[in-house]
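Action item from last week, closing it out:
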Amino acid sequence: MKYLIILILFFSSISNSNAGILVPWNPVAKLNIGVDYLLKPSFSTYAHQTSDFTSDITKFQNSNIYAGVRIFRYFGIEAGYSRILSRFNQDNLYNDLSLKQQYFEGKLFIPLISLPSISIDGYLSYGNSKITASSLNLSSLDTQNSEIKNSVKYGYGVEAAIFGMASARLGTYVLKHKLDVMKDNKMHVTYCGLSIYLL
């Protein structure tokens, strides 16, 4: 969360500044904030139980909020905070996972379509995450806790922007560090989201 707050405050100060030296940032860099819904957090040996979209959104479960900066359309940085509360099944044994993630990553955008009203870009992402997680086994009622201070996070996706004012995206990412609370499985996440541009 601290990465997200620092990024928003820093670029808000840039947009509100009257210093002439900062004016050239406006045409080449854009600040956007957005929210993602984590459609399918998954682990290789676990089956993910069906989520309730309305409940997830209103309670900020399986969701991500972020702030990002696009530079010259081709590059970007993003900081965000994710929260996952989901039930997983392995051989009819159920685990409730609670996971919180703070991340900071860089992005490389690849233009696919460029029109006056809409642009569509593919992107690659790579960064680091700080994770705290706990898993409750519903059969034994045993709880395991874990904290990962520096996990590599990488992924790819596609983003469509309308009139340079708002965008929608669909993507996937992987956490390289295995979670011991989920029997040392890597986490794969598919997500979709919306954002607006502030600058």
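Closing note: Residues 2-16 form the longest helix (15 residues).
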